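The protein record now logged underneath.
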Amino acid sequence: MTTKSSLPRVRRAATTLAGWAAALALGASALQLTNSAAAEAPVKIPAAAADETASASGTQTAFFAGGCFWGVQGVFQRVNGVVQAVSGYAGGKKETAHYEMVGTGLTGHAESVKITYDPKKVSYATLLQIYFSVVHDPTELNRQGPDSGTQYRSAVFYADAAQKQTAERYIAQLDAAKVFPSKIVTQVVPLTEFYAAEGYHQDYLTLHPESGYIARFDLPKVASLKSLFPQQYRAEPALVTARAQASK
């Protein structure tokens, strides 16, 4: 019988070409999951009543953690106004900002995404709305879908006081409105450092749509973005690899 822990093994194996054959072998059985491990269902939620970042100008950054960074990055790369979304690690030290170490759940890091955006095209409050609505389930503590551990926790790493106030007030608003069946457990904590993840993690959703993990857990999130946020959705993602090639 397949357990919930089987799919993370598929995910880890699929990150290298050498492990792809093993991932396929595990994939058929691992994807027979219970409903509790299914893709996080989107929730239609109201926009933030207040945005303390509204006066921001010039390129801004936001940092969100919400389970596997493949899906988080893949969704935000398809949001109008997002210049770049980079998968990485936040919450721990530089020495431990490596995938295999973070995977132990002992480093303090969370798989996170750094979002660079144009506030004239998309606000921080709108990014939060997408984050809480379609990116992940903010009521799940230290897990998302089949992945469990503190490295998969829900967290907003704020860069300044305006982001902190906007996130905290929005969480209070959503909890008061009872838009979710349980209370939001998302941490709102200061950003210390962000470390970009290994190259093979970047643009993973776009580069590996054939992956069983991506098809099951992440592509539905992109579809939900298109459905619930048609004004913010764009078909062509802002890829990290594309920017790297353009800078050469």
Q: What stands out?
A: The first strand starts at residue 60 and ends at 66.
